[in-house]
Amino acid sequence: MKYKKFENTIIARIDKGEDIVEQVKNIALKENIKLASIQALGAINDFTVGVFKTKEKKYFANEFKGDYEIVSLTGTINTMNGEYYSHMHLSAGNDQGEVFGGHLNKAIVSATCEMVIQVINGQVDRYFDEEIGLNLLKL
């Protein structure tokens, strides 16, 4: 992974074989990012995304392997209890034009991933909401 910082914007290239989730964390910790938005595109060949079932209050994961193009990767970097936290969603399409997606758990780059991280001056923490079963923004 390589990246350059331009004021409050980071342009990153995540390379073949690297996990996007891990590399976002690496950048955020190195740059001490407390709040940011993320968007990316690229190619992946192994990814896991989840769907939160509200009645059961838990995530169910789906794993995909093969050639996929990232149609959309969007998310946030913020904190929970003052520590790094990220929340990303991914949609990826196969060679048949079928798109699969959900809450991003893992995505291994097969060619490249181009990412823009827009750092926001500030900090928003999260808290666990018992009723909903998710870590919500504390606003």
From TrEMBL:
UniProt cross-references to InterPro entries, sorted A to Z: DNA_bp_PD1, PPC_dom
GO molecular function: DNA binding
UniProt domain PPC: residue ranges: 4-139
Domain of life: Bacteria
Keyword DNA-binding: yes
Pfam families to which the protein is assigned, alphabetical: PCC
UniProt keywords, alphabetically: DNA-binding
Keyword DNA-binding: yes
Cited Gene3D superfamilies: Hypothetical protein, similar to alpha- acetolactate decarboxylase, domain 2
PANTHER family: DNA-BINDING PROTEIN, PROTEIN, PUTATIVE-RELATED
Protein name: DNA-binding protein
